[in-house]
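B., you asked whether I could sanity-check this one before it goes into the benchmark set. Here's the sequence:
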Amino acid sequence: MRELTGGCQCGRVRFKAKIDSDEAYLCHCRMCQRATGGVSIAFKNVAQADIAWEYEPDWYASSPMARRPFCRECGTPLGFAYNESEKMDLTVGSFDDPSHFYPTSNFGVESKHAAWEDTSHLPSTKVTEYAPAVKRWADAGLEVPQ
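And here's what the prediction gave me:
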């Protein structure tokens, strides 16, 4: 087991989580699509006892059976938890280094959008190669974040 850190975009909510494997999954259900604004969300399932919140997130009761942690300041979705469960999901993107994880399954496939399954054939641009974004960061006196 190793400990990984993560948190929200603004840094207000931070966590440390003991991770037993690099396996994660994608959820495509409509609840997750609406909660994140995405076509799917990558989750890492973790025992709640293995998560230490440095600053407790806010929680949204997204249904009568579950709730979702988030940051009220920046809006970052941080996970999903069934009520009274010993485990919960943390969003892979909220880890400081999400590159550790790889997907092993899909969930909620009744709402999966097939057009978004494989985007490897689409043109790709790095933010650092997109002049309007680079200029906006420079005008703000900042470097383009990684």
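One thing to flag: The chain has one domain: 2-117. Otherwise nothing jumped out at me.
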